[in-house]
Design a protein that fits this description.
Shape: globular
Number of domains: 1
CATH class: Alpha Beta
CATH architecture: Alpha-Beta Complex
Strand content: 15-25%
Helix content: 40-55%
Radius of gyration: 17 Å
Strand order of the largest sheet: 5-4-1-6-7-8
Number of strands: 10
CATH topology: inorganic pyrophosphatase (n-terminal core)
Largest sheet: 6 strands, parallel
Distance between the termini: 15 Å
Oligomer: single chain
Order of helices and strands: HHHEEEHEHEHEHEHEHHEEH
């Protein structure tokens, strides 16, 4: 089994995430967990990537897992996204505060309070140097982009991504963008956490938080899978196909369940 949760969450190099993880060095998921564990600030989790006008299944489930873990640790947590994503998450996190990023007043409020919270971005599209937003196929999706930069600015404390075009990925080495042909974002993360699937990266941070506190904070696989299936039933699509099918980035939900159980076993090994 891999030595770190971040390595476990990055089982393949399909989009260069093993390259990026090795290029960054260290243990980003552990660093992110340490920051969240020790932070006295509120935790703001931003998520939601538009695919043909729909939220995708990668991002919101990882945000739910991380938010649940932080709530369990007694942290004050908010999730910021646009209305379609909030509608997917609210039934599963009824005690959580949500912020509609589509509201100009809410964006201004977040901008005014930027020093008061620690921002974690999970699978959020980022603006590039030309002022536009692109998906992994290089298609301009600026007309759909939620423009988190208007609220957060162009930097965040933590960012989780799986392709290179996400918010915070501007912190990646330039060699990564040259090799993989991705248009570099201008946004940067203090701690950048690459993973084969962004949800997996969020689960890795939860696993590291579990080690820090000495108890399992990972979501139970059956309930978490039901949540993703429910999201699909209510309009979330697979990011690879754009279809209303129970997949995350083209991967069956059995891979999500397996990842959670592998991370749970890893946590048990670290805490035994």
């Amino acid at each position: 089994m891999p030595k770190t949760a971040n390595q476990l969450a990055t089982p393949d190099n399909t989009r260069g995430m093993i390259d990026l993880l090795q290029g960054l060095g260290g243990n980003p998921a552990r660093d992110g967990a340490q920051l969240l564990w020790s932070s006295k600030s509120d935790c703001l989790i931003c998520t939601g990537f538009p695919v043909a006008g729909h939220p995708e299944t990668d991002g919101p489930p990882g945000a739910a897992a991380l938010a649940g873990a932080l709530l369990d640790l007694g942290k004050r947590v908010w999730i910021a996204s646009w209305p379609e994503v909030i509608t997917l998450l609210q039934p599963w996190l009824p005690v959580l505060d949500f912020i509609d990023i589509a509201s100009e007043a809410n964006r201004s409020s977040l901008a005014d309070r930027r020093r008061d919270y620690c921002a974690t971005m999970i699978e959020v599209c980022s603006v590039t140097a030309d002022g536009r937003y692109y998906n992994m196929r290089g298609t301009d999706i600026s007309n759909q982009a939620p423009r988190f930069e208007d609220a957060i600015g162009t930097s965040c404390e933590l960012a989780i991504g799986d392709g290179g075009n996400e918010f915070g990925m501007g912190a990646a080495p330039s060699a990564f963008f040259q090799k993989w042909g991705v248009i570099a974002p201008v946004t940067k993360a203090g701690i950048l956490i690459p993973a084969s699937v962004s949800n997996f990266g969020a689960y890795a941070v939860v696993a590291e938080l579990s080690v820090l506190c000495g108890r399992d904070l990972l979501p139970a696989s059956p309930g978490h899978i039901r949540m993703i299936e429910d999201m699909v039933d209510r309009g979330a699509v697979c990011g690879f196909t754009g279809k209303l099918i129970p997949q995350v980035d083209g991967r069956g939900l059995d891979e999500t369940a397996e990842m959670l159980e592998n991370l749970r076993e890893w946590v048990s090994m670290q805490t035994s």
